Amino acid sequence: MTPEPHLRRDGAWVGASVPRREDPRLLAGRGRFVDDIVLPGMLHAQFVRSTAAHARITAVDLSEVRAVPGVVAAFSAEDLDLDDITAELDRPAHEFVPTSMPVLARDRVRYVGEPIAIVIARDPYAVEDGLEAAVVEYEELEPVVSDTAALAEGAPLVHDNAPANTLVDVSLFATEGIDDVFAEADCVVRIRTKTGRQNALPLETRGVVADWDDRDEQLRVQTCTQVPHQVRTVLSRCTGLQERQVRVTVPDMGGGFGQKCVVGREEIAAAAAALRLRRPVKWIEDRRDALTAAFLAREQRYDVRAAFDAEGRILAIDADVVCDMGAYSCYPFTAGIEPLMASAEMPGVYKLPAYRVRGRAVTTNKAPTAPYRGVSRPQYVMVVERLMERAARELGMDPVEIRRRNVITVFPYTGINNITYDPGSYRESLDLCEQVLRDEGWYDVRGSADRVIGIGYACFSERTGYGSGAFAQRKMSVVPGFDISEVRMDTSGALVVTTGTMSHGQSHETTMAQIVADRLGVPIDRIRIQQGDTDRITYGWGSFASRSITIGGSAVAAASRKLGDQLREIAAHLLEADVDNTELDGESGVRLRDAPDRRLSFIEIADVAYLRAHLLPKNVGPGLTATASFDVGGDGTFSNATHGVVVELDRGTGGVEILRYVCVEDCGVAIHPQVVEGQCRGGIAQGIAGALFEQVTYDDAGQPLCPSFMEYKVPTAAEIPDVEIHHLETPSAFTESGAKGAGEGGTIGAPAAVLNAVNDALRSTGVELDDTPIARETVHRALEAGS
Amino acid sequence: MKPAAFTYHRARSVAAAVGLLNDLGDDAKIIAGGQSLVAMMNFRLARPEHLIDIGRVPGLDHIRRDGAALRIGALVTHHAVETADLGTDFAVVSDAMRWIGHLPIRTRGTVGGSLAHADATAEWCLLAVLLDAEIVAEGSGGRRTIPAGEFFQGVFTTALEPDELIVEVVFPRPAPRAALTEYAERRGDFATVAAAVDLDAPRVVLGGVATVPLRVPSAEAVLMTDGPRIPAGEAAAAAIDPRDEPGVSAHYRRALTRTLVERACEEAAAR
Question: What's the CATH fold of domain B63-171?
């Protein structure tokens, strides 16, 4: 049973697109990113990286490296002697095989770019001179460079403990009698698709500055991570330090998109080197390493059948999902992140009566993968939305109409996947999106004889704010559900609010402050949000999976409410009134309900709480702080959206141009609508990138073929269309502000909508394309054959 | 992505630069805008011992009509040409600049640098062949003029002697009905195929289909007899001999060639 939303939308701050508090410093170039940090005596690090995709290391000789002018030190795995990074799932051995990821490769390398040794020098130039002097001898092994090669009979093993190169093999659902459903269905359609390997590609590459502080007995690590506490944990485990001996702080960040929500080997190695040398060490990943050796994502293969009745109602989905996770499981999520997401959530927005799925993660000799904005949802939404359009075509139905017949309209809805969906606007977003394109005349344009134009849609929801329960259900052994927030008021009545989430560009300093401002009636310029400091924040899971506003924002709200109660209690005592007769007055004060003229400002209350504590009520201690935690109830909350895209194809080149992009989104209560729109646009750009441009490729020997932006075709502003965004609002009952997550939706909808639009444009050719990124040559060939 | 160590020299005159080239030999490279060379040095694909910076050499930054001809100094940036008013006679030159990389690249990259680098898809290289340009080079033997048709000799290889640098490019004849167009998946990328046509000469030149900018006499012959029509594209597509490459088959490259020659013809005819 879903509780009723308890949100009251009476706040002046939530819902307002106030000027972002981050903007003045970021726009004026006064942001402080990792690479801006300069410490006295700071050294620079880079890594000797494997040049072989799969090999035994027979020798690592760094003696010449150490002789290079400017080089201060060079360490191999043996020198640093660090424990491995191992991520686990609570699943039996036939479902999950863990990998031990050494911080520096010891006896074996499993991808080109794998770090083997760290070189530390006085300047970034000498470091690279040092790298060139390293001698690594390999005994090459046969590389495994694709999922099909990994699963082939007799394939070489990437990890000796992982038979058939399979790290995860789970069959989460298998509805009884599903084969009969397919046998008797009026219409069965099948999609086989492969999606390209991508790089989340934050503008700011990864990086760290670490130094040892003798007074605090601490390794101070300034790193650009989405998960500071998890970096602390791994660093502590790898080095043997107690966690109190590690302080991780995070400066301004230029994006993460998931690539920085896992712990990187390089940040651990650089910190360990600083610990060893007792000197500050900086590592800034260069773009070549960022493109070849950083965490990648998204390379998946689907073979999915769907059964429909004659009226277009979906009856069953039978899916086989193989995810090419590369060389190692990432910490803390493991290689299970993609297959588990796809398996659990694929039914999506549709009323699906029968479902069977097998999800596998295979290991290959390619750079390892991490969650990337959307995590599997861009792919399975693409598959399901292709199934819808293909079935519509087979049945002679309108592709929007077939969706209308299938979307969930009555909430809460418990799906075949045992997930209970809270209320959303699936049908409404679909209707509105289609209406916008019709009103703008795109269906007429589509009909013009001399142009090749198609219209495509994606209708989807995404679970945001996964609570501990939801992650536990996936049998993660590290369960990132809750968040803790502390609110502290000082004697000036101003507030410092901690959050365990970690803004890497999403404006939490503004949006979290808006939440606090409404709860306590304090303007946002009197509120500072404190994030990204493991010494100052009790514990945090950071930011990923669209959890920051849903979970972190709710913890912030709960702690604020608690402090408000405390302020009222002190005020009631001082005003000699009953606490029930007090309320916050919205203007940094407490007043009496029955006598609003009698009030105390927060400054007056703080004065007592700190400076004249003898005046406090007996049961209230000195100081003004409140701490609260929050976890998401139920199965979490589901944002939803429909994307509609109009594309034009170029017969002469196979070129694909997006003429119109409309997004109708519903993330519940938008704390800051402009920030939500920024998230949509950025996400859509990354989704379009996956559909049309980006792909990390390797040759048969496992050598990466995209070491620069010449080869890895991240789209530029010239390729990304203007996006029109419409908002619907179905508040969530599961979060304090009624907000649902908004970080990933854009990325999720775009590939499906673009691919459907391209296929619609190809409707007269008889060709259907299902793989991404869409090759222009393939489009050209289809148009050539069809003309 | 930091270059290997090198010695930096600033030349104050062409003669000084030539003198340095003579003294330093093969280990020296001329640098002007650095838009190709620095990237290669950062990847350590190029590791010159010496860089001779000609960026402040006076007298190489002119864009000037000289009778019918257009003379452009080696240090003129793409952006300067893009924003110069070259009139209808040489609109093809200024219009072609928009295809070169991105604005920051165009504000630094130079005409002479692009010609000397001799990438087979580079716009300046195509324009030079298209418009029968003369490349003026200076070396220890003095100045000489190299016809564009003899200048490009292979992959990143030109007729320049080791002690020579480009000082000027001269476009001897107006080309009011000429155009250059390209195809790449992204704006600013190196062209998969580029096509330039001059309907009056006539000339058809292709980039991205051979190791040098490729003139296509058979397509030019079509233009001579038939005027700007689709057959020129067909002729150009038939004349090239591309290989299958990942992502771009020979068949696709031929098709792009046909399309781009047709479009360049249309654009030129519409001037």
Answer: 3.30.465
